[in-house]
Amino acid sequence: MVMGPSAGLILADLGADVIKIEPIDGDKTRILKGSGAGYFPMYNRNKRSMRLDLKTENGIKIAKSLISKSDILIENFRSGAMEKLGLGYEPLKKINSKLIYCSNKGFLTGPYSKRTALDEVAQMMGGLAYMTGPSGKPLRAGASVIDVMGGMFGVIAIMAAIEKRHETGEGQHVMSSLYESTVFLVGQHMAQYGVTGEPALPMPERVSAWAVYDVFSTLEDEKVFIGVVSDSQWKTFCTDFKFDDFIKDESLQKNNDRVKQRDKIIPIIQNRFSQMECDILLNKLEKSGLPFAPIKRPEDLSNDKHLLDSNGLVEVTLNDSKKIKLPAIPIEMSQDKFLLRKDIPKSGEHTNEILREVGYQESEISAFIKDGIVSTDKL
After folding, report:
1. Which of 35, 109, 273, 299 is 20 to 30 Å from 250 by CA-CA measure?
2. Residues 101, 90: contact at Cβ < 8 Å?
3. Do 360 and 353 touch, CB atoms closer than 8 A?
4. Nearest Cα to 118, choosing from 102, 140, 103?
5. Chain mean position to CA 219
6. How far from the centroid of its chain's Cα atoms is residue 198's Cα?
7. H helix and E strand count, the chain
8. What is the C-alpha separation between 242 and 229, in angstroms, rounded?
9. Domain of residue 231, CATH code
10. Does 217 lie in the same domain as 107?
11. Cα–Cα distance measured from residue 16 to residue 5, given in angstroms and rounded to the nearest whole number
12. How far apart are the first and last CA of the chain?
């Protein structure tokens, strides 16, 4: 629903011709409700859609025709599913030796590799949920960070395999996973334990490395994060906001000394900012060059000035013809952004044209449609 599609999205945004193979009755992700309602529109722009029954002999034959002419195959099934279909890497490399076959899985090869995984499963097993919530209350991150990160690592592996193919002329099987992606994310906490001998506390209870690294309330009870992460930033902060007593206090001039006195410092700062209007505080922080952030909600970002002015959002069309703005991939190359080339595809929208490109005749395509092997319904 997210991991494989996000890998395809990145490649599609970068310019690849990505064909999304949907089940014969359409991808069920298209009609998810609640927290899943945004999955399909977010991760499937710039792709073409084909509806194909992989449970039929002719459906597999069509899939192999496509694969024989493709550079890359991305699959996101549970372990063993592609092999049961006859679409595992070993048989496919015989019909396309240059194929780069990317498996997005729950786990890499090992004792857990046959388990079924989800983003939550990986976050719980991999220590991220423990680090996000308070003690005793593990909490998943507020977005599908592991699904997306697993997709990103899949793309990194694909790019490396393409470069290797330039040398050898051969493709290869690459894998990325949810569990190991999570473990990579919490590696800094594993390293902290190795360095200090003390387990990392969950984020709500952590001992900050800096004295000022907090969310503060303004006069309107708006929330603003401020970080002061060096001695020079401390001087700027105290000067710009006229914390004269802090400037005079010799015991507050070094970061580690300030950390010891957080209980004294933070209430004074909070009291000052609670009497300031949010816009005034933000303007002063902008001028100071200090790290800061107003606390925004996802729906606020559609009107973010920076994202709008920098083409950081792309406009796509939903099934009901409503247009919405969604994030572009967050990279630039020679100042170029990677924007919309193809809108979100209707289900099966490109089935016929893809079959023609592979070499099937109109009579064959008509027969496939009649037999229910392919579908061109545009849901």
Report:
1. 273
2. no
3. no
4. 140
5. 35
6. 31
7. 18, 11
8. 18
9. 3.30.1540.10
10. no
11. 14
12. 17
CA dihedral of residues 149, 154, 155, 156 (deg, nearest 10): 90
| Residue 66: exposure state from Cβ atoms within 10 A (0-12, 13-18, ≥19) | middle
- Residue 335, pLDDT above cutoff 90: no
Torsional class of 339: left (φ above 0), alpha (ψ -120 to 50), beta (otherwise)? beta
Tell me what pLDDT residue 273 has.
Answer: 97
Q: Which is it for strands 47-52 and 18-22: parallel, antiparallel or unpaired?
A: parallel
Q: Of 277, 378, 297, 375, nearest to 52 (Cα)?
A: 375
CB-based burial label for 23 (10 Å; 0-12, 13-18, 19+): middle
pLDDT at 350: 96
What distance in Å separates the CA atoms of residue 214 and residue 180, rounded to the nearest whole number?
A: 30
Count of structural domains within the chain: 2
How many other CB atoms sit within 10 Å of the CB of residue 245?
10
Domain residues for 68? 3-186+301-375
Q: How many CB atoms lie within 10 A of CB 14?
A: 15
In a domain, 197, yes or no: no
**Structural domain contains residue 199:** no
Contact 31, 58 (CB under 8 A): no
Q: Which residues pair with 18 in a beta bridge?
A: 47
* Dihedral sign for Cα atoms in the order 304, 309, 313, 316: positive
Which ranges of the chain does DSSP label H, i.e. alpha helix?
A: 3-13, 39-43, 57-68, 81-84, 89-95, 119-125, 128-132, 145-168, 178-185, 187-196, 231-240, 244-248, 255-260, 262-273, 278-288, 305-309, 351-358, 362-370
Task: Tell me the β-bridge partners of 102.
Answer: 74, 174
174 touches 100 (CB < 8 A): yes
- Tokens 């990145």 belong to which residue? 10
Residue 261 lies inside a defined structural domain of this protein: yes
At 77-87, the pLDDT tens digits run: 999 999 999 99
0.85 surpassed by pTM: yes
Residue at token pair 């909490």: 139
Q: Indicate the SS3 state at residue 106.
A: coil
Identity of the residue numbered 95: I
- Structure tokens belonging to residue 100: 């780069």
| pLDDT band at residue 296 under the 50/70/90 scheme | very high
